[in-house]
Specification:
single chain, 90 residues, 73% helix
Length: 90
């Protein structure tokens, strides 16, 4: 009977250690998950800011103003503009 008790005690200790290890792993994964969620939220915020900045930089009025002021570009006179049209065959 004492041999059976010793085996059961060893099994109980092994199960207890497995539970402890499982709980520790679970907590570790939860901490990692929360860290990654926080990082994802930060990246989402950064993505939104970058999209807003891109919209600002790509604004046609801003590009036109910079082209005129910094590069000295001007629109060509109307007599120098030529519009080509595609004529389809009958």
């Amino acid at each position: 009977m004492s041999r059976l008790n010793a085996i059961l005690v060893l099994a109980l200790v092994a199960c207890a250690l497995a539970v402890i290890q499982s709980q520790h792993r679970s907590r570790t994964y939860f901490v990692e998950l929360e860290r990654l969620k926080k990082q994802a939220h930060g990246l989402d915020e950064q993505w939104g800011k970058l999209q807003l900045e891109q919209g600002t930089w790509a604004n046609p009025a801003r590009v036109d103003t910079l082209a005129r002021t910094r590069l000295g570009l001007i629109a060509p006179p109307h007599d120098r503009v030529r519009v080509e049209t595609l004529v389809s065959a009958p």
